Amino acid sequence: MSKTRRTYRSMPAENAVGRRDFLKVGGAIGAGLIMSSRSLLAAQQQAQGQQPPAKPAAPAPKPKPKTNIEEAIKVPRTKWSLPGPFPGRVVEVHDAAAMPEGQVNAAVVKAMVEKGIQELTGKSLKKSFGLFFTKKDIVGLKVNPVGPGLISTRLEVVDAVIDWLVSCGLPKKNIIIWDRFDFMLRDAGYTPERFPGIAIEGLQTMDEAAAEGKTQDNSKWLKPDGSHVSVPNFDQEVYYWADVEGPKDLPYLNQHVFDGKHSYFGKLLTKKLTKIINLPVFKNTGNAISMATKNIGYGAVCNTNRLHAPLFLDVCVEVPAFWPVRDKMVLNITDGLRSQYDGGPDKNAKFAYIDNRLYFASDPFALDMICHAKIVAKRKEMGVAVNENPRFTEYLRYAEKLGLGIADPAKIAHVKI
Hints:
Elements: H1 19-24, H2 37-47, H3 69-74, E1 89-94, H4 106-121, H5 125-132, E2 139-143, H6 155-167, E3 175-181, H7 182-187, E4 199-204, H8 208-211, E5 234-241, H9 250-256, E6 262-266, H10 267-272, E7 275-279, E8 284-285, E9 288-289, H11 292-297, H12 308-311, H13 315-318, H14 323-326, E10 329-340, E11 352-361, H15 364-381, H16 391-401, E12 413-416
Parallel strand pairs: 1-12, 2-3, 2-7, 3-4, 7-10
Antiparallel strand pairs: 1-11, 5-6, 8-9, 10-11
Helix pairs in contact: 4-6, 15-16
């Protein structure tokens, strides 16, 4: 992906002060403080015996926009519904030989995947398969292709998952590697040539040149009637509604297919897939994470940028609460072979590091709570300022209230291998 591409924007890093920026700040650093000009003035006035001016009252937070989450909750659950058969259980597998010198050792990764699955279920690979799938299922592998070559989902992790499924009797023709954007899949190496016999499907097309303002020709994505060429790929009867309008400009429509108050689920999820394996990457978005719940929450529906400011983390709960995800996403494997602790959700080599870990769970919210704690610890270790406001994990507790997973650390079984 080129440095100029701006096709996937997310939450900015709030109150994040990099190590170099921290050391450049003068004066108050010796006391362990970073002061604004207002607080420096107050300190001077206090030293002179003057009373600093009263701080203006903080503006009341805006109420969150209404959504149709109640409609999702009303739909009866199935035996496959989140949090799956292992609520609150997270397995972390580490092997220092997984990426020697940054090159993936496919055999080691395959062994890690097999160990993780068996440790999660307590059963053999074949019996584990039976807990999640039948041989007639159509299984979608939701990868994260953002940051290709650096922090996108490793092709070898996907290979190992496919090998497991096929060895247990699932035909290759019943497996689909998918993401929201078709061009991102290609950029990250998810091609029919690399995965023979496996379908590769993006929910939508986007014209990169038009999105980047390099051309005024919108004919590759805009039909003569003014609609997006990918409109037929989305199910307009199954949607996440939020009382937030999408922008009406052409660049937004190019990226998001629709620009109203509805985020429609891809027909791939509502009409074709019967099961989903979620394969996110270990990385951040500001002080929050961009892992299991965001990979599916922002990947399963269109028209999402309108939601970033008012409902960013809530989307990671409310979209998975709808049946096309809730009743089909049976397994999550977070790729932490190479992780990134800052600069996300796009790739930034400055903050990426080899960690040689994979994480397994049927419960994506327990998984994200464990990974959030780990990335906070890593950011502190590397001298990156961390905002530990509870709002960055409150969405996970919200999911627990909805019965979608376990977020209370005291109730999570974190198993390390």
